[in-house]
User: Fold Carboxypeptidase regulatory-like domain-containing protein from Caulifigura coniformis.
Amino acid sequence: MFRRVVASLLSVALVGCGAEEDVRPALQPAQGTLTINGKPAQGALVVLHPADGKNFDSRGSRPQGAVGQDGAFKVTTYQDGDGAPAGDYNVAILWFGKSGNASADLLAGAYARPEQTGIRITVAPGSTELEPIEIKGARLMAAPAKPSKDHDGL
Assistant:
């Protein structure tokens, strides 16, 4: 009798120990370009948020791409350049300059809220090229000044 009780308790305890498996959706390779005021936005981060507001995995992953010198970006969800699930997305853009190390968004947060940017894209099955994203008339914050070589931090 004692063995049955212990076995029952152990089986109940072990059932609760299993970790929920993170099921990853099928991804569609995708790439695009971003220009701001007619110039490549090198260092900008393009972040895709599902337009329906639902997460496609338990982690709440957001596909994103870092913009290169030529204005091009490849969408990454889990591994470099793997793409995004097919679907419609609202887009947020953060731009910390060419190095990506500046302390302030050069767009002053104007494109940080995906539901307010008005930028929508569709990742379509069978197509890897996204519509170009062109932002015109953006007011840019000045990049932080670099300290001079003789700057002693005082």
Observations:
- Confidence is low (pLDDT under 50) at residues 1-16.
- The chain is about 10% helix and 25% strand.
- The helical segments are 2-15, 114-117.
- Residues 31-135 form a domain with the Immunoglobulin-like fold (CATH 2.60.40).
